[in-house]
C-alpha cells in the first residue's frame, strides 16, 4: 500500500474493524450480504464504507431523479455499509445520504471502493506466492 495516512496502523485503535455490507432490499433479512475484514485503520474502514455507499447510491440514480427519488431507490435496491468495531467514530451513511442524493458524484474516485478493499491485498499476496 501507499504512504497514505489512512493505511498507517494506529496502535491505540482497537482491533477487529470490519465493514458489514447490508442488502437494503431485505433479501438477506437482517444478516449482512458479506463482512469485509482486514482494515488497517479506522480511516481505512470509514473511507471504504463511504465509497461503497456512494457507489451503491449512484447505481440507484437515473437521469432526472429528484434527491428523494434517489434515496427511495437506494433504500429499495441498494446496499448500505456499516463500520463495526469503531464505536462513535464509525462513519454512518445517514450522515451523508441526503448530500449524496442531492449532488451526483463528480469525481469517480469518490465511489472507487475497490481501490480500498483490503481483500485486494490478500489476492495480491496469493499471486506473488504462485
Descriptive labels:
130 residues; 3 strands; alpha+beta; single chain; 4 helices; three-stranded antiparallel sheet
What features would you describe in this structure?
By secondary structure, this protein is of the alpha+beta class. Helix content is 36%, strand content 12%. The chain has helices spanning 42-60, 67-77, 97-102, 119-129; strands at 18-23, 34-37, 79-84. The protein has a three-stranded antiparallel sheet. Helix 1 (42-60) packs across helix 2 (67-77). The protein is globular. The two termini are 20 Å apart. The relative contact order is 0.20. The mean pLDDT is 88.
According to DSSP, the number of beta strands is 3
Beta content comes to 5-15%
Figure out the total of helices: 4
Mean pLDDT: 88
The sequence of SSEs as H and E is EEHHEHH
The span between the termini is 20 Å
| Strands ordered across the widest β-sheet | 2-1-3
Model regions low in confidence, pLDDT < 50 over at least 5 residues: none
Largest sheet: 3 strands, antiparallel
Q: What structural category arises from helix and sheet content?
A: alpha+beta
Kindly provide the radius of gyration, computed on alpha-carbon positions and rounded to a whole number of angstroms: 16 Å
Shape: globular
Helix content: 25-40%
Amino acid at each position: 500500500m501507499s504512504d497514505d495516512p489512512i493505511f498507517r496502523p494506529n496502535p491505540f485503535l482497537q482491533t477487529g474493524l470490519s465493514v458489514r455490507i447490508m442488502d437494503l432490499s431485505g433479501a438477506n433479512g437482517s444478516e449482512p450480504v458479506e463482512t469485509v475484514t482486514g482494515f488497517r485503520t479506522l480511516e481505512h474502514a470509514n473511507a471504504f464504507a463511504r465509497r461503497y455507499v456512494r457507489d451503491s447510491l449512484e447505481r440507484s440514480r437515473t437521469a432526472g431523479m429528484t434527491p428523494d427519488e434517489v434515496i427511495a431507490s437506494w433504500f429499495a435496491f441498494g446496499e448500505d455499509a456499516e463500520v463495526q468495531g469503531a464505536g462513535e467514530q464509525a462513519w454512518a451513511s445517514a450522515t451523508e445520504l441526503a448530500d449524496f442524493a442531492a449532488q451526483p458524484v463528480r469525481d469517480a474516485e469518490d465511489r472507487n471502493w475497490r481501490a480500498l478493499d483490503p481483500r485486494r491485498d490478500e489476492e495480491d499476496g496469493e499471486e506473488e506466492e504462485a
